[in-house]
Amino acid sequence: MASPSPASARPQRSPDEVEDIILRKILLVFLTPPANPSPAVAYLELTAAELLSESRPLLALRDAAERLLIDRLSLPDPPAGSPTPFAFLVSAFRRAADEARKISTISDADLQARLAASIAHLRALILSYSRIVAGNPDTFPTPPGAQHPAADLLVFLLAEAADPLDPTPAPGAPPPPGFIDEFLGGADYDSIEPAMGELYELLRQSVDKVSALGDFQRPLRVLRRLVDIPNCAKALVNHPKWIPKNQIMLIGEGRVMELYSVLGAFFHVSAIRDREFASKPDVGQQCFSEASSRRPADLLSSFTTIKTVMNGLYDGLKDVLLILLKNLDTREKVLEYIAEVINKNASRSGMQVDPLKCASSGMFVNLSAVMLRLCEPFLDNMESKKDKIDVKYLFCNNRIDFKDLTAINASSEEVSSWIESINNEHAQNNASGEARFVESQEATSSGKNSTASQLRCSKKENFSFICECFFMTSRVLNLGLMKAISDYKHISQQLARFEDDLESNRAVRDQGGGSLQLEQDITRLEKFVEILSQDKFCYEAQILRDGVFLQRALSFYRLMILWSVNLVGGFKMPLPSQCPKEFACIPEHFLDDAMDLLVLTSRIPKALESFVLDDFLSFIIMFMGSTSYIKNPYLRAKMVEVLNCWMPQRSGLNSTASFEGHQLCLDYLVRNLLNLYVDIEFTGSHTQFFDKFNIRHNIAELLEYLWDVPSHRNAWRQIAKEEEKGVYLNFLNFLINDSIYLLDESLNKILELKEIEAEMANTVEWERRPAQETEERLRVFHQWENIVRFDMRLANEDVGMLAFTSEQIPAPFLLPEMVERVASMLNYFLLQLAGPQRKSLTVKDPEKYEFKPKQLLKQIATIYVHISRGDKESVFPAAISKDGRAYNDQLFASAANILWKIGGDPKIIQEFMQLAGRAKAAASEAMDAEAILGDIPDEFLDPIQYTLMKDPVTLPSSKVTVDRPVIIRHLLSDSSDPFNRSHLTQDMLIANTELKLQIEEFVRSQQSRKRSAAVSEIGEADGADDMAE
What we know:
- With 1029 residues, this protein is mostly helical.
- The protein is elongated, with a radius of gyration of 43 Å.
- It is an enzyme of class 2 (transferase).
């Protein structure tokens, strides 16, 4: 084989001989017994014999090239360690390229052309057989233990995809130049498909259980390169593991999509920890272990690194999907894949997600980021593109089932009815054409079946890609980004609880508790805190620190808001009286997710920077107070939470102008907040009693802020006037109810805290107690501290709102159905704060519990005075004195003394004492009136309060007669008949005019009798005097 090169070939060699030398060098073969045998060069003895038998020369010429190649590859029993057929073909391709370069120096143009054609022919054969061998490794004998040819192919691809910034070096040497491009790009689908099947599987395995800190970039670049080749892209979407059908014990279909689909492995790459199928390296352990002891700069560096690598993943996967979507041969399969991922993981939307049944949060966060990137073109032009989003997709598409999702304001039966109406519309649209068809041709049974299928909405709709992408993204975000945000909140809450417990246990240990159980609890809690802290930082790194990701999601939900509002006629109030079915039937999570994201981003510094919020604000104002459009009170409560976050003093956003200059805000914000304050009393949840305090806390903060904005305060006064006996009265009633409950609970818990404080102060007795008992008492102490702090904060808020509203809007407090309730509340508060038991409320550190008795007493006195100033009918003093539970005239004197001592406003104290005097006089008058009436017939007494009725009304269901103010006061909190629990509203009350006249006659007769008796007594006294004279 030591033949001279073509460039120096001796002239005596014929063209056949030159060609023979070159082809044998490429194929590493002899056709005659070699003088100097080499293990790398094969003697094809049988091939030579066949050529001789055919009377052909023993020369490796073009027409024998394929026979020589096959025979070279077919050598039996190759030893271990020898090149595989595929490796031999790759090296032959390289040698062919070398020889092609060498012949360029041959001066004989005809010879050069002949040799070039022969080398090109052989090169094409090498590529063809490379594809055959890569797809079917057993085609030719293979050395024992040889790896699949696709593994070599993957090594080549990875080597060519190498980048200096990759975390690890390339796994092997690159292939000959041009080999990959010609191997993949120059083949038809049928020849390349078998090889691609194994290659894609190996590519999937290369990123299997790789985390964000692992080497996924090279495989991703390989995938990106492959899908750019049409036949390779087609092979990918036709791969058995494009949508895997595996059924694996204990593993659900959703998880199978992640673990076994080709794309699933790439989507699994994440910073978010997957406990069931852990990825390496462990991001939490490597970046955030013992985070409290790390320098802030180190944490920031970790956040930046993770954000950078994850965005590289998002961009790469977006490119892959976009290329496949642009290819008409693969687009449908891509949409099918995304739909399958969504459908098989639908249970991720539940409160509890089975990690063995569903794909991980990491996968769905990644898919969320990729889908948002696919949406970008129409998010940039949403005003012009929103009309391409067809609401019928929700119920007439063949990919994703939306019908089982909770609708915004429709039951499942109503949704079904609406779908039927769509189907009927389809039938009507096709009726004329179908009639013409029947006239021209005989109707067949198949035609009847076709009509029936249309009525079942099974007719294939032609929805635009924008429409499909929009609704798919909405589901992916719900199952992905928004679920992950929910998980993050849950982790944060868990972490906070464990940290509180850990702090409490350490405090117990520091105060002398030292049991073995306590030490074990502390160790266990420290472990939980470390794990949860790492998890929290991982979520933060991938989601919360990625401002671009969050703003893309906000842009998507802005489009969602624009599209939703479009269904009801646009941004205008009032809303149509009848909620359109198109709006009522859309999934609730569309809007719920938008509000959740707004709450989150509003609390992240700079997350909303430069983002226009006007559309969100208008949407919230429109729907926050409307039960006929949004049924779920918790969703409407989230809208308040959003606005609460946007208060200028809290958010740092320049949203003051929005609240003050936004016309919908000025007209409807206060009204809708008051409506929601009332509606939230009954949410239908088993936790509604406690939920309402959190929600009303947000409403109260917002109302307090709006009270200081003159335009909104004027709107508030107008509403109070218009709705004096409507929603505003209900609002005041619940405000009073909450104030009483919260202050009462707080004060009772303070007494219990004082009791434990006294126990701990007696150190001798305390130390004698068993360690377990003292630990339990300390836990209770810390738990009650938190409860008192929360309840007292809300109580202060509510009393403050009563103080500032009573100053300018006192009239509703003085209504017959309200005035006694208000007086009783104030008297009760006054008794607690200025009565004999006030000293029992003294605790070591009242500020720690937000217990401010001096401030509370000043506010209570101020409320008394504010209401008294508006009392033109002098009904307030009588209501104060009528309270038999807490009223006594000495209490007011005691309160005034305390107010003087703590620096109360002298004018308020003076008016407060004047009111006390009027109340004392009213009490005396009431006693006189009671004496005049004497024994009142039972039928004249209100059966609830046992007081004389003034305006008797009959309840329609139970037929019981009660006093109107008493029953209205009851209905403010409970819309049911108190005697049989049937539904009852104010307008259902039946005035009992006859009884009212009887009561009035009774009062007159008693007063007349009393006057006659008094006159008679005076006359008798005068007669006695005359007799005495």
